[in-house]
Amino acid sequence: MITFIGLGLWDEKSMSLEAIEEAKGCDKLYAEFYTSKLFGTTAKKLEEIFGKPIEVLPREEVESGKNILEDAKGKKVGFLVAGDAMTATTHVDILLEAKKLGIETKIVHGSSIYTAAAGLAGLQIYKFGRATSLTFPQEGFLPDSPYNVISENLRGGMHTLVFLDIQPPKYMTANEGMQVLLDIEKKRKEDIFSQDTKIAVVARAGSDKPLVKFGKVKDLLQLDFGEPLHVMIVPGRLHFKEEEALQQWK
Amino acid sequence: MITFIGLGLWDEKSMSLEAIEEAKGCDKLYAEFYTSKLFGTTAKKLEEIFGKPIEVLPREEVESGKNILEDAKGKKVGFLVAGDAMTATTHVDILLEAKKLGIETKIVHGSSIYTAAAGLAGLQIYKFGRATSLTFPQEGFLPDSPYNVISENLRGGMHTLVFLDIQPPKYMTANEGMQVLLDIEKKRKEDIFSQDTKIAVVARAGSDKPLVKFGKVKDLLQLDFGEPLHVMIVPGRLHFKEEEALQQWK
């Protein structure tokens, strides 16, 4: 059996009682912290709470899913992930592979940046279009897809949640993210994301001291948002209550 | 001070350690269960865990926010809500009102149907467009907006999460929801939601026995999805992995 356990957003206190109970009841615990990560705690602290070791898997091993699936044939395996479970494609891949092998599966949900970022900023979650992710430019290559997603969402008046690349130990800052979008703008010139675009930055969601800032890109670029993780929100058409909410963060 | 506490999806075990700690530390606890509700537990059970009474507020009182704000001037007030905090507009209204009055605010996040429904179905969360809500028809009046949202999302290949009306003690079933959309289709005739449209139904997300079903509307209409809450997903363009995931639930 495999239980996919969402640990929530920030530290060990973000975990639900169910997550803790399930993890304690497993024979073997795996974790992956490369699609997301809890910045307020460590695998060691989680091991103390669960009373058993956690094997943190590198990307290749999660993608093959081999050890997890092998163990799950005879044992109760827990697969720990930050945020809600199943938000990363590879988690679904493992689940489907398990089903094929006749292995029972279960999902334990955790709090997620998808709703947390909107809530912290004070924006209405139902007004968000699809989310997008920025990656660190590789040899100058900048994929346009995030720009396209923002553009399509704006056309429908929708907000866009923009995830920033996670390549441990490198975590893209909102400043780097803004620069990536400005660079795409330079190429595309459709005035989707300029120095004057107003956006929101949310840092350390789920922690005791989350930071939200709202303003023009040129002003936000000067700020230091502190420790990761950061996300950005490019707002679409704003309801006056949303406008009022964002004004708090100037 | 007001702490907005998201309780998560289903029962007392859905709560995070932080939610419990914060609720225990409050002088006064309010709750609202009309925008969403925990079906696996009761206010009484939560009171036992927190060791103090919870005043469950009717819609009018939440909308005015009066008692909460009055109490929060001198006391530590906790406002308990199902799912993640701040997903309902009224919660943001109270927060903004509190800020105006100089009252400190804090948000404690919980697991939410937004990510849980996608995860349970095996669909990729980043492929969801904006969500929509169906309401019980009143005197034959059927607002078209949910149909428009689904239509726009489909045009962009995106999935749509469809919430179903909550009017305690009435909770719209997926069957009723499908009928509402079929009735709008009859009027609009744009072939957005027909008997042959394939959709997914997710019931009791966050419980030990969530149910997911995927199939044509005409077949799903014959099924009993059991106790609330139900949500529906109208899928857009499917990645082959998503197709594979949905095939599990036929």
Give descriptors for this structure.
homodimer; 250 residues; alpha/beta; five-stranded parallel beta sheet; five-stranded mixed beta sheet; 10 helices
Give a structural overview.
The structure is a homodimer of 250-residue chains. Chain A is α/β, with parallel strands linked by helices. Chain A is 35% helix and 20% strand. Chain A has helices at 17-24, 43-50, 59-64, 66-72, 89-100, 113-121, 145-155, 174-188, 217-220, 240-247, and strands at 2-6, 28-32, 54-56, 77-81, 105-108, 132-134, 160-164, 166-167, 170-171, 198-203, 211-216, 230-234. In chain A, strand 8 (166-167) and strand 9 (170-171) form a beta hairpin. Chain A is elongated. Chain A starts with a strand and ends with a helix.
- Indicate the overall shape of chain A: elongated
Q: Stretches of chain A where pLDDT falls below 50 for ≥5 residues?
A: none
Order of strands across the main sheet of chain A: 3-2-4-1-5
Gap between N and C termini of chain A, in Å? 49 Å
Give the structural class of chain A: alpha/beta
Strand percentage of chain A: 15-25%
Helix content of chain A: 25-40%
Arithmetic mean pLDDT of chain A: 96
Distinct helical segment count of chain A? 10
**What series of H and E elements makes up the topology of chain A?**
EHEHEHHEHEHEHEEEHEEHEH
Give the tally of β-strands of chain A: 12
Largest protein interface, residues of each chain:
A-B, 55 and 55 residues
Largest sheet of chain A: 5 strands, parallel
CA gyration radius of chain A, whole angstroms: 19 Å
Task: Tell me which oligomeric state these chains represent.
Answer: homodimer
